[in-house]
């Protein structure tokens, strides 16, 4: 039973002051006392010992005094209860505290000869040291438990059989088992089969009193393995080993990081050692230098020769580059990086090399720059090649930009990479228009399959190809180009683009066409000369007889006039055939085309009526007269109107429109006949080429010749099943043309 007595009251201080015992008993941290009952009061009859002084008691205030007069009420009541029980024959022990001193008291009855209890005997012992020890022990136990519970390392203890006796939370986390599960098992389940025997030997070695550190792999509850480092220490009490205490740390991540770091280090050292670039590392404190074999090979200095450096500037830096090197070094010393700077470095033999230089800082443990690494690549050959390439490119650029031929570079997908400035001259487009676009988009749709076949052939054979293609001009028409495409091979010797050189064939085509027509005209001229000679003779006879008949006839005088007029026209047409054989003088006169067209309509009106064709004539007012050979222009108009009528064998309408536009008077003959296909339009006007079943093509050819001699043009616009429009453009000249 433990009671804590209250402190002594202020009034009782003098009574509790220590005083020497006269009895001569040895002073000790204990005391003895006796107590007896007198007149229903408990009287202190004896009290001695060192503890008496520690309590601050005085003999005169204690002996023969009642308990309630000696002690404060709370203690007095407690003691009276204890002493009453002792007087009744009980032996008791109790703990209490008096004046701040803890103590243990033992009391018991003193029996008389007759067996009655007359006094109570007591013994007190000072518990101050024990309480202090217990407090320290409790604090130590709390610290130990706190250390166990909050330690990040796994802490455990094992008995002599290897069974866990204590574990902390980190131990449970590491193993995957709960603390309860661990306290009911040994360490064997954690050991991998190949490590179990070694683990048992290590445990036995610890039981022998040896404390050592080990590293191994253990198996967790979920089957995964972890790398741990642990220490086993024997638990020794009174020179006897009672078990083993252990501390385990999970080093799996650390070992993996060390492995990765080791592999990275090995890889880095391998890369540096086998690199073809010169690599050097200069420490800023002692200027020690590390270089790789490539550095020694390129510059000629070995690492041993650079061992006694007194500056971070290596001898590879020429004098004229020292200032530049200092500037770059300063950047790196402040944590900056230098990448790909082209500069000059010096070999041991004095040869100057063009190099690409990169510098990087190397940091120490405190984050300061402790060394510099330099990587330099010899680009001397590259510089020479670049120079040669630049000179070559400059030559070809001058050629490409000044040639009249079109030069272009296109990849295999048809994307334009380059077009020479001559494109403006040939096609009217600025070269920038083609950038990144598909070249096929600028080809005539009919030519694209042909070009695609040629390109495929070039890729397969890797040989140049030639082809003709029509390209769109900025003004809307098509320009025929003769193109030569040559493949460009890449590093794998496979074509990845091709160069196209194209030349305008328009003039050559015209020349060829003129030569072809010239041959036809030559044959036709010889034929026309013979035919004209043979026709003129009978025409002369017919005209003579008509004049004779006219002189004798008294009726139908108009008919004779028409027949004679037509015979004269035939004779004139025959004369035009002679133009094909040799040029003749042309007699230009000012002519009103409206009157000329009305006369032509009157001539062919009968033929139109017979084929159910209506002729409509439209004209702008106040049209100027033009200089022309009226018979020749009349012949052109007759041919045009006749062709329009014959284009509508089942009937229809022909519109003749006369108007002024710009510097021309334009006579248009519009029919609604069968039309002419687009591919046949370019050949109209050639001799012996016609759309008529029984035609010769000479009529339209003569029309072209006549209009050309008048410095005019013939334009044709036609669509199948919609009709055709022939427009004759005759220039308006103020002065009479030269015959």
TrEMBL record:
Keyword Iron-sulfur: no
EC number(s) per entry: 2.7.13.3
Regions that span the bilayer: none
Keywords of this entry: ATP-binding, Kinase, Nucleotide-binding, Phosphoprotein, Transferase, Two-component regulatory system
Coiled-coil intervals: none
Keyword Phosphoprotein: yes
CDD domains: HisKA (cd00082), PAS (cd00130)
All residue ranges annotated as the Histidine kinase domain in the record: 530-734
Pfam family, one: HisKA
Catalytic reactions of this protein: ATP + protein L-histidine = ADP + protein N-phospho-L-histidine
Alphabetical list of Gene3D superfamilies matching this protein: 1.10.287.130, Histidine kinase-like ATPase, C-terminal domain, PAS domain
Domain named PAS: residues: 140-210, 264-335, 392-462
Sequence ranges assigned to domain PAC in this UniProt record: 76-139, 212-263, 339-391, 465-517
UniProt cross-references to SMART domains, sorted A to Z: HATPase_c, HisKA, PAC, PAS
InterPro entries: HATPase_C_sf, HATPase_dom, His_kinase_dom, HisK_dim/P_dom, HisK_dim/P_sf, PAC, PAS, PAS-assoc_C
Enzyme class: transferase
Matching NCBIfam families: sensory_box
PANTHER family registered for this protein in UniProt: SENSOR HISTIDINE KINASE, SPORULATION KINASE A
Protein name in the entry: histidine kinase
Organism: Fictibacillus norfolkensis
